[in-house]
Specification:
The complex is a heterodimer.
Chain A: H1 4-22, E1 41-43, E2 51-53, E3 62-67, H2 72-87, E4 92-97, H3 101-111, E5 118-121, H4 125-129, E6 137-141, E7 147-152, H5 157-177
Parallel strand pairs in A: 3-4, 4-5
Antiparallel strand pairs in A: 1-2, 3-6, 6-7
Chain B: H1 2-21, H2 25-38, H3 57-71, H4 76-87, H5 102-129, H6 137-154
Classes of the chains: A alpha/beta, B mainly alpha.
């Protein structure tokens, strides 16, 4: 009995540490889930005279992917994005984050362009509204313009098939029955 | 004529120099507020630095955004609300007191109280375990003898 209490306390400590130390401190719970996607109007990468706004996407389920040519995780993610884009499951729009125009264009030419279009956030102001703190980040936005899911870091095939795809299908199903 | 022009150019130059260098008191106040506020905020890219210390791109952007909002007359509370609406409470180095953080704020005091309670209980138990045992007449006589003997020695 004398030793049971310290042993019990020790086991509780081990359990807490086992949970706490496994969590990735870079993964923050997003406060924007189930909130309205911040609106913006930005020039398009291909043609600066044209603009793109989150409001243009009302009534559609879409992904907003924050990327930059200087971002290492984006390179890892790019191959996957091309695949998701080819599957045609959901349109992917890019937010080119604090990038040089030439670099961004060269990147898409070299690696392929998974985006319907990319909007240019030169000074990162729109990214602040979206709470971006580490590219790549991806937002799933529904028909009403609500953010339903956010991925910080590369959108891996695992997350895509287990989280994003089922949510997209569910949202599209709800959208058509409405 | 040339002299007047020369003097006026010189004066103009001086004015321009003054304008470029003297920060308006407003700007100095904003920098002071920014510095104070950004020490309470976490840089999200390099999580163990404050927004004031961090050289990361995002920290720079956020400082610029805070400046813009301060110039627009926003209070510190409004700016903190703006930031937490986007990045969550995690951006605050001093956690808010909410039901979710009660354990964090008050846990140590609870542990302290438990410790004090255990300490007092232990002290009382120890005091009670040393039972009072009155001296018998025999003991008293022996004690007096011993005292008398040691008294002789020292004398």
């Amino acid at each position: 009995m004398r030793y049971l209490i310290p042993l019990g306390l020790f086991l509780v400590l081990v359990l807490l540490l086992a949970i706490g130390l496994r969590r990735d401190p870079n993964e923050l719970p997003s406060v924007l889930i189930n909130k309205a996607a911040p609106t913006f109007r930005l020039p398009q990468l291909d043609d600066h005279s044209k603009t793109f706004s989150a409001d243009d996407m009302r009534g559609k389920v879409w992904l907003l992917n924050v990327w930059a040519s200087w971002c290492i995780g984006c390179r890892e993610e790019h191959e996957w994005l091309l695949e998701y884009s080819r599957s045609g499951a959901v349109p992917i729009y890019g937010l080119n984050y604090k990038d040089k125009h030439e670099d961004a264009v060269a990147w898409l030419e070299e690696l392929g362009d998974p985006y319907v279009l990319s909007a240019v956030d030169l000074d990162g102001r729109v990214a602040i509204d979206y709470g971006v703190y580490g590219a790549p980040e991806t937002y799933l936005i529904d028909q009403s313009g609500t953010i339903r899911f956010k991925q910080v870091g590369p959108l891996s095939p695992d997350v895509w098939s287990k989280k994003v795809l089922p949510m997209v299908q569910e949202l599209n199903r709800q959208g058509t029955t409405k | 004529m040339t002299r007047i022009r020369f003097v006026s150019v010189l004066l103009l130059g001086l004015f321009a120099f003054g304008a470029a260098h003297a920060q308006t008191p407003d700007e100095a106040e904003i920098e002071r507020r920014l510095h104070k506020l950004s020490q309470e905020l976490r840089c999200l890219q390099c999580q163990n630095q404050t927004l004031a210390d961090s050289p990361a791109g995002l920290a720079e952007d956020l400082r610029r955004e805070i400046r813009v909002q301060m110039r627009a007359g926003k209070s510190d509370e409004e700016i903190v609300a703006f930031l937490t609406a986007r990045y969550g409470d995690f951006i605050l180095y001093r956690p808010r007191v909410t039901p979710g953080t009660y354990l964090l704020w008050f846990g140590p005091f609870v542990v302290l109280l438990i410790g004090l309670f255990l300490l007092f209980r232990y002290i009382r138990k120890r005091r009670d375990s040393i039972a009072e045992k009155p001296l018998t007449d025999d003991d008293r006589r022996r004690a007096e003898e011993l005292l008398a003997a040691s008294g002789k020695e020292t004398a």
